[in-house]
Amino acid sequence: MQKTLIVDALNADTAQDSVRICGWARTRRDLGTCSFIELNDGSCLTNIQCIVDNGTAAQAALGSAAVGAALSVTGALVPSPGREQRWEVRANEIVVFGQADPETYPLQKKHHSDEFLRGIAHLRVRTNKYGALFRIRAQAAQAVHAFFHKRRFILVHTPILTGSDCEGAGEMFRVTTLPSGEKNPGKDFFTRQCRLTVSGQLEAEALAMGMGRVYSFAPAFRADNSNTPRHAAEFWMVEPEMAFTDLTECMELGESLMKYVIEQALVHCEADLRLFDNFVDKGLLTRLRAILAKPFARIAYAEAVRILESSDRHFVFPVVFGMDLQTEHERWLAEEHFEHPVIVYDYPREIKPFYMRCNDDKETVAAMDILAPRTGEIIGGSQREERLDVLTSRLRETGKEPDEYWWYLDLRRFGSAPHAGFGMGFERLLMLLTGMSNIRDVIPFPRTHGTLEF
Ligand code: 4AD
Ligand code: MG
């Protein structure tokens, strides 16, 4: 018999003589006349209650199956007398696919800390919280695609294996097939050094300079040593790139994207988000709605520095013009000063990558970061340097060999045009959406410094 997902069974319009539900037992209670099993199949937060009468064939088949067991339950979908759910299943046939030994199954019905669950990432998706989290993640990804599709951006797939360092921060993972000890890159698979990409931007620029508006949504890899709750070694980035435009449109796009994803999550993941509002981050829903309610603040970097300098907050890193803003500064600006996301633009040239467009003041570049309360930087982007001579000298200034960027420079030799784009850290956005404070808990199998389990 065909299976019904629990989400569909719970939303059924009418009772049904026979449905078949498959899932994992979340609870089991044995009473004098029957057993109650709460079943969950991951399709939604709510369990469906199954009632198995004593002395029936179904109960014999159920046997001693306990919390964690995988079951198929066939029976009538009937109105539930309980207030919590509309429908329940009166079982008349049960198949136990797999038992879970109550002595050793780690997910007994009690509170488990995020740290504990991280150690069993292969099982944590069976908890209410992580099921909700990964459904919100899926909905957010759908919303990203819907947003760009509506705006006629073309999805592009940029390479994961690359020879070029986009950010120039030297935080790349090397990829090699050379036996250990062999150092000659000429003998390697690609006969040259190969790395995992830190960003698809340079290739996205090439594609935008022919297709106009493109975006990629792909994994990025960074070997930064910073063991923080905001950095993962493998994370997902959304990178739109637009030709014939400037920094202002880029800011507008970033703000609209963030708002659209939040709005869609509020519409489609209401129950899942409510769990986070109740148990993870009180006030989350109010805060998300407030983000939608008014435009993001916008300030130049110089102004941000002035505001930070005149604040009476003690920062671990004192603020001076020319420094990169640290998470403590980003969070203070968004969380306490503006109490709203803020777009900081026109950063000092010295602290930003070679590809950002130099402003006329020769001191700053047309960069923008979107900073959010609690999370800090979620989006980083810029207008790109479209002038061949300026870009070439920027490459030299930042210690790069222009010849190695020959194809990137070609984009400025042939039909160059103003263009801009950004990268949005998808996990950072999920942290904002769920109130989770550690990036390790918004990606199913996190890869961070010193950890490569699963
Ligand atoms: O600011 P970033 O480094 O910008 C770029 O990589 C540009 N090439 C993007 C572009 O313009 N196309 O990274 C973009 C975003 C950051 O704002 C942050 O949200 C996220 O990527 N990010 C990370 N997320 C998780 N773990 C890390 N280690 C991250 N590094 C950056
Ligand atoms: Mg950045």
UniProtKB/TrEMBL annotation:
Its EC number is 6.1.1.22. It is found in: Cytoplasm. InterPro entries: Aa-tRNA-synt_II, aa-tRNA-synth_II, aa-tRNA-synth_II/BPL/LPL, Asn-tRNA-ligase, Asp/Asn-tRNA-synth_IIb, NA-bd_OB-fold, NA-bd_OB_tRNA. It catalyses: tRNA(Asn) + L-asparagine + ATP = L-asparaginyl-tRNA(Asn) + AMP + diphosphate + H(+). GO terms for cellular component: cytoplasm. Pfam families: tRNA-synt_2 (PF00152), tRNA_anti-codon (PF01336). One of its GO terms (biological process) is asparaginyl-tRNA aminoacylation. Gene3D superfamilies: Bira Bifunctional Protein, Domain 2, Nucleic acid-binding proteins. Residues 134-444 form the Aminoacyl-transfer RNA synthetases class-II family profile domain. Homodimer. This is Asparagine--tRNA ligase. It comes from Candidatus Desulfovibrio kirbyi.
